[in-house]
Hints:
Order of helices and strands: HHHHHHHHEEHHEHEEHHHEHEEHHEEH
Oligomer: single chain
Radius of gyration: 59 Å
Distance between the termini: 71 Å
Number of helices: 18
Largest sheet: 5 strands, antiparallel
Strand order of the largest sheet: 2-1-5-4-3
Strand content: 5-15%
Shape: elongated
Amino acid sequence: MKISFARFVKSLSVRLLLLTLIWVSFISTTVAYTMMLNWELEASSAATNMIEDLRYHSFRSALFAQKQYPEEDFLDELKSFDEHIEQLKTGDKWKPLMMPDSPEVQEAFKGIVHCWNTNLKTELLFARESGEQVPMQKVTIFVEQLSVLADHIEANRSGLLWQLRYLQGLLIVLGIGSLFAIEFLLMRWVIRPLRELGAGIDKLWVGDLNVRVKSACDDEIGQITEGFNQMAERLKDSYENLEQKVADKTASVEEKNNHLRQLYEMTSYLAHRQDIDDIFEGFQNRVLGLTLADACLVQLMDEEDDVLGVAASHGLAGDILKAVNDWHDAVISAENILDKSYPVFLNLSEMDGDHIRVFTDAGFRQCYCFQIRSANVKGICTLFYQTRRPLSSPHMRLMESFSTHLAVAIENARLSARDEQFAIVQERQLFSQGLHDSIAQTLSFLNLQTQFLTDAIRNDDVHLRDESLENIREGVQECYVDVRELLVNYREKLHKENFIDGVKTVIQRFEAQSRVNAELHVTGDGVEPDPCQKLQIIFIVQEALSNVRKHAEAENVDVRIDNDKDLTVTIIDDGIGIDKDIVEVKKGRHVGLSIMAERAARIGATVEVTRASPIGGTRVKLSLKEEARQLS
């Protein structure tokens, strides 16, 4: 506490604040005392003026006491005299009006009050009632007493005036003296130290790194001076060791750039590889080149039974790979490597066990284990060394980044493979639905007609035989057309054409197959649909036109594409139209409509099939909103 108080007192700001506080307090007190003296002088002057009024009223009262003057004027004079006496007795601080507190003044004032109340006032009343002359000698004596009171008040005022003059002279002397005192203190506390500090800064500016500024105080300027000396010392040290520091920084930057280059190379390689074997091979080659390890082992956790298995290896013989399971059970489980958030170092030369001896017999002395971890991938990358070679912290961090990128690359490869499998399954499902909606139904019809033909031959029914043969011929022809249409549709390279050209190709093929007139109308200048949207929309148009060919008995088809913020595709035919009730009944069995709905749902679109007009025709309307186009 004492040290804190001492530092507090030594503070320049505190000293200046205290000095200012003392000076302002003294000035304020002096000014207040001067104002009080002025107030007392004004109050005494007012009292003197009122005593002069009492002299005047004394003679007027003696004059009006005679019978020839009205009694009301006499009484008013007596009343005015009494009021003046009462005002002098009570005083008034706001006028100001106040009798001085000196004993002489108070004693003289009491004598005047007593003389007036017991003597002069009585004589005046008696003279008024009796009509006799007022004894002027008593009035003169009373007026002389008032003069004595005025002299006492004036003497008191003179004393106050002398105090005021002394105080003003003292203020002048103290003002001049404080000016010199403040200049002296500012020179000593502020100006001189700042000049010395400025001179030191000037010398440092011209290159004198040996300059130091002495400080005789421990205040803020002293702290700034100490900071300046430390800065000069550091500048001198930095200047003397600049070349070495530049070399060290350059080496550090080169090492970091090298690590960043290796990290970028690894990231770029892993990002452009989807084959898992290529990923492992490229990863191990780069890791071995970076860490100078003698062998590398990558183990991944099986997704089903949570068991580590060998995913890839480099530099490990077959007998060592056979012992990896024992290595996992005895070492990795014991060290709990997968549960740690940092790499694990194992000194194989100091460990016991048959599972360790396999590695030590192969010449390996130490290894580092790094976690391979992502959302759905977990494993370990182990680097083996035949000699003691500690990995630096930057290499350790780089290896951790490599392992993380490897996990992401493995996960992406797995997801890509799953996406391809899922896409194949979906396309096979759609293909099977297409077969069911076309060829399967036709074959079912052919099977039924074959049974009719068999019965006709058995019963020698010529009419039924010829009719069955004609139906079989038409069914085979329709089945052939359906097969060709499916083959053409699934061999189409839609990604090589833009959206409008792809639609035109589908329309041209429809006209060639059905000999139905089809027209295309395109409006809007919206963006081109992405490949996924383009593929599904063209397949929906193709399915709608196929339904026109099979069921509509139409002569004309109008295809309209409105490509603004929203994309709308409308196919309208002039055929027999669609029965909404029949569609609802056959909704589960009409695969064509289901296929269109499924394809639209894939890209966030909707498909609506309605009757084009009350007299016939069918309208198929596909709507793809702006929000769905941006999310796709």
